[in-house]
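During the no-cost extension, the postdoctoral fellow (Dr. R.K.) reprocessed legacy sequence entries with the updated structure-token encoder. One reprocessed record is reproduced below for audit purposes.
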Amino acid sequence: EGLPADATAPADTAAEPEDPRFDAATDALNRGAFEEAIAVYDAILEEEPHNLDAKQARDTAKLLGRLSTVAPGEDVIAAADADPASLEKAFAAADAAVVNGQPEAAFDRLIALLMRTAGADKDAVKDRLLELFGMFEATDPRVLTARGQMASALF
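Re-encoded structure tokens follow.
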């Protein structure tokens, strides 16, 4: 199991030398210490706000941390389908879809929710969508399509 390669690795990883600052975060992730890993990535982003690798890694660590709280065998997608008004269940289902290599399903679920929410809930859905988009290359056609759909849902 785990994230598909395109969800975790930037397209040009092979061309870049490994950043030693990521080692502490990798160690933390291997121990299941997601908050510790996120703190390492946040520290890198403090120094380099536009470091795409750190942003993608941080957002992936956030997603993995959220999914680590799901009970083994729990079907978060079925739970979200059964309770379409629940933001929490929709967020868990979207996370699971990304991990299962189905980001379009995650984006579609959250965009549909975006159209049914208002106020703080709408902001929370938008923020989660943006976080999930950040896990992929900005030029990924799936992200470009979903960004357009998100814009239509917001306005």
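Residues 52-67 form the longest helix (16 residues). DSSP finds nine helices and no strands in the chain. The remaining legacy entries will be reprocessed before the final report is submitted.
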